[in-house]
Amino acid sequence: MLALTFVALLIATGNAAGIRPLLSQQLALDPLTPDEVALATRIATADTRINESLGRGRKQLIQVQFVTPKTRTNATAPQENESLSVRRRAAVTFYRYDTDQGIYALIDLQLRSVEEITKVPGRGVPLAIEEVSQAFALASLNKRVKGFLGSQGSEFTVVEPSAGEQPKNRVEGLRVIATGPRDPCNKHRCIELMFRKRGEYVRGTSVTVDLSAQKVNVRSTPR
């Protein structure tokens, strides 16, 4: 309360300039801002090592996430104003279709550099909303999909699961994990599309899209 009173006093007396640096600083656990997300993406996509890891084939930016600052490893007291100079970091994840691999890059936003690059198995890489949109675009060209969606097919929209207002007709996607080496989705990026009309799932048809092979598999299922 005393700190708030002090800030209010500075503003009232015209001395607010002294606290502007404090208010403009990002706190240690603040989420990434849109500018930070854009910066991390630019740093990652411009890095030679990351581009070599991604190869020349198809790839997808999956996500940019905030990385919690590392815990202090020594018992020394923090230096004066240390808390105001937080090393902000972001994790940028890509997916490489030809090798079924994820490329994870740790970005130091303060130094504008790539600290670490790690390759991870493709099955551990989450879906990006852009991939669901790509899968729906492929499925929309399929005659059987057009048939069961009917005249309302053009009204379906892919949305983030966490989006506030949900459209009446929407498309959702789930990652398909292969059950064995002979599974068509083994080492492929497959998505099961689910269609909702006015809050209810459309039953009777299963739509699986193989983004790696750019194929759509439609089959009938029990209602």
Describe this structure in words.
The termini are far apart. Helices cover 24% and strands 30% of the residues. A hairpin with a 4-residue loop joins strand 3 and strand 4. It has helices at 2-12, 20-24, 34-46, 48-54, 129-139, 143-149, and strands at 59-67, 89-96, 101-108, 113-121, 157-158, 169-176, 190-197, 200-201, 205-210, 215-220. It has six helices and ten strands. The protein is globular. It is of the alpha+beta class. It folds into two domains: 26-67 and 86-125, Nuclear Transport Factor 2, Chain: A (Roll); 129-220, no CATH class. The strands form two sheets. Strands 5, 6, 7, 8, 9 and 10 form a six-stranded mixed β-sheet that branches.
What's the arrangement of secondary structure elements?
Layout: H1 2-12, H2 20-24, H3 34-46, H4 48-54, E1 59-67, E2 89-96, E3 101-108, E4 113-121, H5 129-139, H6 143-149, E5 157-158, E6 169-176, E7 190-197, E8 200-201, E9 205-210, E10 215-220
Parallel strand pairs: 5-6
Antiparallel strand pairs: 1-2, 2-3, 3-4, 6-7, 7-8, 7-9, 9-10
Calculate the mean pLDDT score and round it: 83
What is the share of helical residues? 10-25%
Low-confidence stretches: 1-24, 72-78, 80-84
- Rounded Rg: 24 Å
Q: What is the succession of H and E elements?
A: HHHHEEEEHHEEEEEE
Q: Notable features of this structure?
A:
six-stranded mixed β-sheet, disordered N terminus, 10 strands, Nuclear Transport Factor 2, Chain: A, alpha+beta, single chain, 2 domains, 223 residues
Summarize the structure in short:
The protein is α+β, with helices and mostly antiparallel strands. The protein has six helices and ten strands; from the N terminus they run H-H-H-H-E-E-E-E-H-H-E-E-E-E-E-E.
